[in-house]
Amino acid sequence: MKALTNTDFNFKGQKSVYHGKVRDVYDIDDKYLVMIATDRISAFDVILPKGIPFKGQVLNQIAAHFLDATRDIVPNWLVKVADPMVTIGMKCQPLKIEMIVRGYIAGSAWRDYEAGAREICGVKLPEGLKENQRLPHPILTPTTKADEGHDLNISHDEIIAQGIVDKDVLEQVEKYALALFERGTEMAAAQGLILVDTKYEFGILDGKVILIDEIHTADSSRYFYADTYQELLDQNLPQKQLSKEFVRQWLISNGFMGKEGQTVPEMTDAYCKEVSDRYIELYEKITGKTFEKGTTDNLADRIEKNTAAALDELLKA
């Protein structure tokens, strides 16, 4: 199986290109963004040395599925899915925060809580919580949006005090994030899943708040299986989950947490296929659709051709 780990295209009207941890973003005429979901995978803010086949397609198609399903809540940037791995959208001015919504205490929040923290991003947490336990209500735990290195937790009051986002815009974004989480929770429940936590990114276009980037994917979200949740919680056992957390746990168990001097464990072809299968399982489980694998021969050529054709159509309009 082949994986796409880098791109270097030159599209009509291209102004610049940004290579992120997972996505490559091409600016077209300062109006559109071509976002290519590569097969790169990152954990602990480190890009791992091997790509995961079909991961980019999974993320791109899940994001499009949920962006279409939430347009009634908040306008979003998506204009056209040009290729299984490519979304074209409106260019917005991104806000310098990520809105993380947590319905359960898991992942980094649990690690902080277990270490003694009883407040995250200005939100007080009750005593006596167990790992993966449902919180009394979903909470907002924003982070700064770092271009490089680690994102940092930040509170509502700190965001305003530091002038990162205006108060009225922040309150609108918080309202949207909670409403999106509620919709995502309902859609997950319909598929027998629990949406545990997720992140949203927003931008400004023509003075309005716009939902951007991906939503409710395996890279931005954590899902538990609903049918085994309570039993596993009662027995203090790890939850069966669909998320990237299993990759983080594999890295942790092999002595890697992104710290200086640590080495990424070997990613064998068999392990990469296992991760790929987990991503495909997530797609089928959360969308209720059968995953149709795109052709992997000449991936770059396919993407370039499909994207160029879609841009020609948009730029003529």
Overview of this structure, please?
With 317 residues, the protein is of the alpha+beta class. Helices cover 34% and strands 26% of the residues. It has helices at residues 55-69, 107-114, 156-161, 167-190, 226-234, 245-253, 269-287, 299-316, and strands at 14-19, 23-28, 32-37, 42-43, 46-47, 78-83, 86-90, 93-94, 97-104, 119-120, 123-124, 134-140, 143-144, 193-205, 208-212, 221-225, 241-243. The strands form four sheets. Strands 8, 9, 12, 13, 14, 15, 16 and 17 form an eight-stranded antiparallel sheet that branches. It has a five-stranded antiparallel sheet with strand order 1-2-3-7-6. Helix 1 (55-69) runs parallel beside helix 7. The radius of gyration is 19 Å and the shape is globular. It starts with 13 loop residues before the first strand and ends with a helix.
Would you summarize the structure shown here?
By secondary structure, this protein is α+β, with helices and mostly antiparallel strands. Helix content is 34%, strand content 26%. A hairpin with a 2-residue loop joins strand 14 and strand 15.
Determine the fraction of residues in helical runs and give it as a percent range. Answer: 25-40%
User: Outline, from the CA principal axes?
Assistant: globular
What is the average of the pLDDT values?
Answer: 94
The portion of residues forming beta strands comes to: 25-35%
Distance between the first and last residues' Cα: 38 Å
Count of discrete alpha- or pi-helical segments spanning 4 or more residues: 8
What does the radius of gyration come to? 19 Å
Report on the biggest sheet.
8 strands, antiparallel
The total of beta strands comes to 17
Structural class: alpha+beta
Low-confidence residue ranges: none
Question: H/E series, N to C?
Answer: EEEEEHEEEEHEEEEHHEEEHEHHH
